[in-house]
């Protein structure tokens, strides 16, 4: 099918692998420069767009859809789609594509790296050394073993179960909580528990839920209070799943011994944010899927989703 008259727009840079795939199939308008596409330019592009390749950092809602009367598909280069108003898109028959699966290992690696950091002071140790304090390393205190500890995974989906695999290699016991128990949990070496049991019995908690109305703010003051004293906490899902003040207080008081976060509320997290004043919190700037290989795969799936949708074919991954 000749799609050359179809206009595909992108609010940011498209990776070369996806550019190459798209450019002789459709008419492409992307912002390949640094920074954001200028407002006037963006308005013009939306007006004529048949497809939107979203890099994820824009809100896609009725306000945007009204400016894009021809839009047939939004394909986003991420698995999370909490920035997209799915109902508004459905009401206008705008299809939504995302990129589950291809980023699972990269994200689970960062989650596990943060988890080890909460146990073993890797980032703190580096900063200590850099500050010329090698000789005073006892000031760091001792870490704790992962071996024989309980990891509670909240959100045992694709990424949650990939975190479990890594933790099993360290000899951890895995428990998890989802809204729905997974049929194959025994084969994955994980035991289903209630939310309360997970909070009360986990030495480490890793969060890999989707952001939805049931998870927004689920780690609040009561959740941190219910945890074991000295629990360690990792979040790679979305910052809005956690009440930031409650987390700050829990770490400051020692209730939570250490935290590792790839996502925060707000994002970007300002350099002078109170969370960053606590020595036992490590924050990475939402980079869990940021490897060359994974970003290439995400870009290619996004481009393939666009071509499939414009051709009336099923997308590789469609959000409904
Ligand atoms: N930091 C980063 O760069 C990245 C972050 N992410 C985030 O990770 C999320 C998960 O991705 P992925 O594993 O692929 O998604 P999946 O859909 O495979 O897994 C999400 C899991 O969350 C569970 N869940 C949803 N609501 C609740 C709830 N209220 N309580 C407990 N569990 C819940 C779901 O189970 P059930 O429906 O049974 O409750 C499901 O098992 C993404 O949505 C995204 O926000 C993803 C990639 C990169
Ligand atoms: O945060 C990233 C995603 O893929 O979701």
What can you tell me about this protein's structure?
The chain is an alpha/beta fold and 320 residues long. The protein has two domains: 7-79 and 292-319, NAD(P)-binding Rossmann-like Domain (Rossmann fold, 3-Layer(aba) Sandwich); 103-283, 3-Layer(aba) Sandwich (Rossmann fold), CATH 3.40.50.720. It has eleven helices and 13 strands. The chain has helices at 16-23, 39-48, 62-66, 86-91, 104-120, 122-130, 158-169, 195-201, 221-226, 244-253, 292-310, and strands at residues 7-10, 27-30, 51-54, 73-76, 95-97, 150-154, 173-177, 190-192, 204-207, 231-235, 256-261, 281-283, 318-319. Strand 6 (150-154), helix 7 and strand 7 form a beta-alpha-beta unit. Helix 1 runs parallel beside helix 11 and helix 5 packs across helix 7 (158-169). It is elongated. The mean pLDDT is 97. It binds NADPH dihydro-nicotinamide-adenine-dinucleotide phosphate and ligand LL5AMS7Z. The ligand O=CC(=O)O binds next to loops. This is Glyoxylate/hydroxypyruvate reductase B. One of its GO terms (cellular component) is cytosol. One of its GO terms (molecular function) is glyoxylate reductase (NADPH) activity. It catalyses: glycolate + NADP(+) = glyoxylate + NADPH + H(+); (R)-glycerate + NAD(+) = 3-hydroxypyruvate + NADH + H(+); (R)-glycerate + NADP(+) = 3-hydroxypyruvate + NADPH + H(+).
